[in-house]
Each structure stands twice: as structure tokens, then as C-alpha cells.
Amino acid sequence: MSNFINKLAMRVIKSEGYKEASKSLFSSYVLNFTGQESKFDRKEISKLISSAQIFYKSELEEIKKEGAIILSMLLDICAADNQDLIPIANSIFSNSGDFPNIQLLTEKHPQLNFKYNFYTEAQMEFRQSLNTIEELDFPLTDYQRSLWHDLSSDKDVITAAPTSAGKTHIILSYLMKKITDSDGAFAAIIVPTRALISEVAGKIYQLAQESNNENEIEICTVPKEGYFGEKTFFVMTQERLHEVLQRGDVYFDYLFIDEAHNITDKNRGVLLHLTIEKMLEDSFPQVIVSMPSPSYQDSFTSIFKDIEFKKKLTQHSPVAKIVMSVVPKGQELIISRHNSSNVKHIKKGFTATHLADIVYKLGKGQSNIIYRNKTNYCEDLANEISKRIVEITRDPLLEEAADYVEKFVHNEFSLADNLRKGVAFHYGPLPSSIRIMVENLAKSDNIKFIACTSTLAEGVNLPAKNLFLKNPLQPIMNKPSERIENVKINNITGRAGRMLQHFSGNIFLIEPDSWTYKDYFNDVQEEEEKIPTYFKSLNEELDSVLLALKGSYAHNEKDQYRFYTIANKLIKEYSSHSLNNTLSAKELTLNEKERDSLVKYVKSAYDDLTVASFTLEANPTIGYIQQNKLFNFLSEQTHFDEWILPHPRSVNLYDVLLKVGNKLKEFGVYTPNEGYSLDYICVITKKWIQGNSLKEIISEQIDWDKKMAYDNNKSAPSINTSVRNVITVINNDVRFRLSNALRCYQVLLTNILLSRKVDLSSVKLHYFIEIGACDERMINLINMGLSREAAKEIDSKLHASVQITSTKDLLELNLSGKLESIHTITKKELLGLLT
């Protein structure tokens, strides 16, 4: 039967009748989203809905996608005037298990009542009951139902599905049930970036509230001393979780690796690899690995070599993707649908060919994301789109958002004026409170246009009806840009269309023939075997690994952390007699001579080791030779008082930071980035760690930038550039580089103090640096999932005697009215966490 359906579907697609009908439908669809009236022939509708029914029954994914595209376009432009389409669409969605779309149909057409025959009614009711899980209050897609059953069987699961397939919600719902039903359990959830921590933590708290378990669980987002709640979710990046694992007293029952394709990422892959291996030394959790592409399903073979995974893979999403190329030519825009002969010419209505003109023409009145390669490109495009919005309907929500930017960042930061027109930009070096605010306004549809960098590819949930791409590239500092990986492009395009709001999402490729890389949307893409960065680096960059093992890989090179982490991992494996696991792994393709050379260098490095081998594991990104130098220096000291790291509130914090920092720099443990001096980094670190407001830090940065420009007879940078500089320095130089270096310093110094039986304690400054606060109450607020700026404002409004140790305390404070004076944006972030 399936072979017959496939042949029939292909015959339909190739027929002239279908080509003409789909061409007419596409023409009407384009006119519709550009705000023009269009009439579509009833006979054509009948042909196309019949075709869609056939396509949905095919087992070939590309034919199913064609059916989904045709059906979504029909529903968008014809359903209001042709309501007999609704029961047909309802039946199609039921048979394909796309129950979210049935809910969307009901919401869009609540007045429509229809009856099927008894057999069809019974069949649809059975399908819905099959996809309804007792523990969840909504019917699932076929993929979600199958994933839930695999998880509930306590199996280890690898799942790959498109961005909009709803996999994360099912996994978190499952973990919530298991944790709350237990007598006590720990779940570790690894996310790739700090930006995702608050998003995932918020989802977990929402699930806890829905099941009335919010007072029973703890959500931990930063490493801390002391005890954890009996039922705790650890939502952390690999860096933060790695530090928790160094305690050695935490057993995990569940491990969920979100966006797991990052095991192959150059910047994060090796540390993620190390973190997983460290966890498996002391814990035997149920492992759940989630990724957007099946290309990465075998990337964990060596890491989880004794685990047999149940694999749940799909390429299907309830939200169809309509890919279109857009080419300005003369007075027209030529819009062509990908993989079809559908083409529509429309009047431009503007004279130039600026991207902002195209975006505004095609996206007016809808929600839009425009991917740009660089942060300043995002800002420039947001400004250009704002200029084209002349008629402004004052939106109180946007006005309060703009006011927040002016009060908490800077009154000349261009985002404020953009927001008043429903336009925004979104990228990594934005304050976390601003990112959260923009994301919430986008989800509520108050912001209509967002210019965004690759934060979209990191899993940040920012779906919109339309996504625009123009020559997408991966910028590399001081090097030519590279092609974006397919998995990241798919993650970006996955943001087109929002489940339960859209039947489809539009992906506009702007002038694709002029792109540097033209193969992003090829039908057949050659995918190399995806292996962890650890093995890929050994296979392809062995010389650099050997340099790191000798301690001579340049410390100012961007990849130094990756190669020194690999070198430390190799030394650790040698010391624990497990190096053969790496040498015999199927992912390693070195020849015998190269393997012998690798072993020789590893042995030599191990023999030269003066620090304890376990410190290499505690400080994985810093080379052993650099650690040796620092260890030897500290060992030579007779008085340690001047080398002890003080409390962040200490009056001599800056002086100690500068003194220690100079030694760390001298031994290659810390190298400032971005051309800033060490004393400047220490000033920023002091203000950050002591909880100074971001606006204060930014204002001082602006003054510093102006002074430097004056001293060098140059023009001062823009306010936006200064804001980006501050956030970039804090994220890269302070929270990553300096934090790692001080962690290494702390571990080595503590070991020496213990061995000498010196009764002095050194503060873990790196812990406070990572958080950006040093007062217990503010730290607790950040740990609950609030942004640093929201936590600071709430903290500043309360008397010093008020304690906040749980979300219950926070909720009671809010209900008592003691937080009434906080800014409305902070209030919304707070309510987003609590409700």
C-alpha cells in the first residue's frame, strides 16, 4: 500500500494540474502576507486538499513535507471562506498525530461545529486517547508519545528531532514526575550557554507549579557549598556542573544533555566530554541525550561505551517550513518557493534594495526574526527597520521596556528607541535581564522584528512566523568567516513558525545566489561522521595537541583552552591507566607512528608533573606546565598572608587581584583578551563581583572609552559599542578566563596550605565572579533563576534582615507588597519565575 501511495503522490506532484494549482495557491499566499487581496478558485482548493491528503499518507519525508506546506497555506488563506476545509484538516492532523495543530484549529475556528461518520469519529477518538498520557493534560504528537514511553521504561534514550518538535517539554515533564515521585533524587541538566539556564530553570519551575510541587523541589543553577535539597534539579552549563562534580559527594540519578550536538563544538565539546566522564565515575544515572539532528546520534559511542541507548528519531515537526528565495530586480521582488516551480512577482514599493526594506515589506504585521552574522549588523538593521515605521501606536508594554533599558543600561542605548517601535536586537553580549525581557516581549507578540545573531542556534526559544536569512556565515575573529554547520542552520530555521500559533513558518532566503555558501538548503547534503571534538582534534590537529603537551602552545591563541584541556585529559587518562580507551576508540584514526608519538608526549608530560594529577581535572582548561610553574612559585613562599584571596567585600580586593593576576599572567595561567590591561580587568572584576549595577559599570566604560579615544586622537566609539565592550569583557575576560585562572590558583594554594598545615583559608573568588554577586541574598535570588540585574534591584529594596532562601520566601514577599516599588520589567521577570 505504501509503495502505491508513494507512486500516486509522485504522479500527482509531476502533473500539470497540480503544478498550476500549487502555483495559484502560492501566488495567493504571497499576496496575503504582503497585505493584498486575492481570490482563490474553489476548484483549485478541492484539487489541492485532495493532494495534501495523499501526500500525508506517504512514507517519504519530502512528500509529507509538501503535503504539510500545501495544507498550511490553504488553512492560512482559504479556511475562513471555505470552512469545509477544517474537518478535513482536523482528520489529517489526527491521522498524522499532530494534535497541537488540532488545538490550533479549534482556537482559530471556535464557532465551527461538524460531525464525522461513526467510524471516523471512533478512529479519531482512539488516536487522541492513544496520544493522551495520564500524567500530562494535553494530547501528544506521535513522536512525543513514543518518547514518553521510552523514557518511562527507564531506558537510556538518545532523541533527535527538529527544533519545534516539543522534545524538551516532554523530557522535563518526565524528569519532574520522576523527581517528585521519588523519596529523593538529583537530576543534572546540561545546557550549552548561560542564556539557556534561566529559560530551562523557568520551565522546570512552571512544571512544578502545575503539579503543585514547587515547594518540594530545589533548582540549583550555580555551584554552591553545603547541602542541596533532597529533590534537586541542577540546571547548569558544563563548566558549572564540572565544578559541582569536583565535590565528590553528589550522586546523580538522571542526566539530561540538552543541545547535545555541542559534543562536537570546538569551544565546548572537550569540557562537555570531560564533565560527562566525570559524572559517570561516581553516578549511574538514566541518561537522556537530546539533539536537533540525527547526524550526531553516534557521537557518544565512546563516552557511553557500556550503555545501550534506545533511539527515538524523527524529522517531522507539526509546524511546516515554507522556504522561499527573494530577489529584488528592478521594481519587483521575485519570490520563489524552494523545490517547486512556484514563482510570484510583486511590486517592491521602494527604490533601494536594503535588507530592511525587504523585511518590512514582507513581514509587516507579523512576527519576524532576521538572522545577522555580527552584533553591530543586528543593531544597524534594527535602526533601519525602525526608520521605516512611521505610524506608531503607543504600546505601554514597549514603553516600559524602553524605560527599563534607559534606566538600567544607558539612556542612549539604541535598543530603547527601537523597542518603542516594536523592533529589537538580540545577541550574546546583552545583559541577561534585557535578553529575558526581549524574549518575553517577542513571545507575547509585542515585538514584531528582532535582528538576532547565532544565539538562535544555541537553543534560545524565539520562534516567529517569518525568518529572514542573508548570506549566513560564522564569523571568526581575525580570520575569514566560515560556513555555518548544518545543525546550526537547522536550529536557526527551526525558529520559523511557533507551535500552537502557526501551521507553518516562512523562511526567506534573501538573494541566495550571491551567498558565500550556496549549499545550505541542498536536498542531499553530504554529512561527515560527527565525532566528539576530543577525537576530531587528535585526528586533525595532533601537532597542536603535542605543543600543548609540551606547554608551548601560545596562550594568546583562541584555541588554547581546547588544546590544553585535551592535553590535561590525556595526562589524566595516563595516570589512571585508561589511555588505551582513547587509543583503541573507533573514532581515533591516527596511524601507529602518530599514536606512538602521542603516548611518548603524554608520558613525558606526566613525568614532568609536579602538581597532583587530580588538580589537572579540577582545572581542565589550564596547561599542566603553567600549573607546575604556579605550584612551584606558591610552594616557595614562606608567608602566605599576602597571597590569600580575600572576601569580595575586602578593602584590598583590587590590590590582591592585581598582584595575583600579575603572577597568573607571568606563568601563562591567565592572559587578558580584547586588548585590555590587567589593571582594567581587575577594576571591572571588583565592581562585578561586589554587585555594582551594570549601568554604573557601563557609564564608567563609556568614560574610559572616551578618554582612550582622546589620548589616541581618535573618535570615541558609540554608546552601543561601549555597552557591548562591557558585556564582552565581563563574559569573556572576567567570568571565563579570570574565573578559570583563579579557580586554578585557589585549588593549588589550598592544597599547599593543607600540606603545610597552615591555618589560613582562601576565598573561592571564582564562585562569586561566575555569579556576579557576593551577598548571600542576591546569590540566592540568582540561583533561583533571576537575572543578575533583577536580583540586584529586588535585593536593594529589602531590609538587610529579610532572608530569601527559597522561591516560597520570594512568593510571600511579593504577596506581602514589599516588592511593589521594583520596576515593572523586574516585576514581570519575577512573576515569570513564580507563576
From TrEMBL:
Q: Which residues form a coiled coil?
A: none
Q: Which InterPro entries match?
A: DEAD/DEAH_box_helicase_dom, Hel308_SKI2-like, Helicase_ATP-bd, Helicase_C-like, P-loop_NTPase
Keywords assigned: ATP-binding, Helicase, Hydrolase, Nucleotide-binding
Kinase: is it a keyword of this entry? no
Helicase C-terminal domain: from which residue to which, for each copy?
354-553
Which segments constitute the Helicase ATP-binding domain? 148-294
Q: What is this protein called?
A: RNA helicase
The opening ranks of the lineage are:
Bacteria, Pseudomonadati, Pseudomonadota, Gammaproteobacteria, Enterobacterales
